[in-house]
Amino acid sequence: MTAPAHTAQLMDGTALARKISERTAARAAAFTERTGKAPCLAAVLVGDDPASETYVRMKRNRCAKAGIDSRFVALPAETTTEQLVATLTELSEDPDVHGVLLQHPVPAQIDERAAFEAIAPGKDVDGVTMHSFAAMGFGLPGFASCTPGGIMRLLDAYDVDPTGKRAVVVGRSAILGKPVGMMLLARDATVTYCHSRTVDLPSIIREADILVAAVGRPEFIRGEDIKPGAVVLDAGYNAGNVGDVHFASAAERASLITPVPGGVGPMTIAVLLEQTLDSAEAGLA
Length: 285
Ligand code: NAP
Fold this sequence. Notes:
- The chain is α/β, with parallel strands linked by helices.
- The chain is built from 10 helices and 9 strands.
- The termini are far apart.
- The site of NADP nicotinamide-adenine-dinucleotide phosphate has 26 residues, from helix 10.
């Protein structure tokens, strides 16, 4: 079977992430030279979920490539909220640690929100605390949630100005759908959120000049529902290496589209490392 023709230009997250990470690596080298110590990101993993282990390994590998130390804390699956809070508090108070990351999801017995809130706002380089979320809402300085931050960087890199555009975000999770909609709103898009209770989703998707798919359902959004010329950002990452958008049919309608893999995914880690350097350098001021 031959691959279907597509007209959309690809938004190359791998290339953009590499460019951002090269800048981060140069900043990390300058920081190390100036302080005698490398910037450091601490990653905490609870339990032995293989997907989470893979994500943490990828993040640590990317840290190593950028000249950032990564400190890895593996806790057993039966860890309590109190134990996890104590670990995250200790890392937050360690002057040699510049960023603290809790890999999620965490096991069911843990109060995930309480755990996130144990991360000091100044070291919340993954942008998961209420402080970071509120700062984004108020337009104040703070760390962005990394995947939404990466999506906005892709739009900027491809000269997509959200001003006045109809943006539709499918998904409303606290780490992805909700913040990316807020970021688009802050950039003067007219934003509609869709979710599992939305009635007649296709009719809303058809109005989108900018479409963000953050659903977690393989190839859920089909090309026939995409407005011709729309910019399509697929944050989904599902089993079988497919996104939330049916790529082949969507690429026949969109003007710009992110592939999966190689679109939004690599941007998440690039933003995480960049924000680790922002935190490290803030400590020098
Ligand atoms: P999530 O917390 O499960 O949220 C999924 C959202 O999709 C929910 O808001 C849900 O609505 C909505 N939804 C589910 N079924 C729907 C339907 N039939 N119609 C419309 N909306 C529907 O997922 P998430 O953490 O935001 O992740 C979403 C996807 O992004 C996943 O594939 C995940 O792997 C991927 N992801 C990628 C990265 C990255 O680095 N690239 C990072 C994070 C997540 P309700 O709120 O009504 O339930």
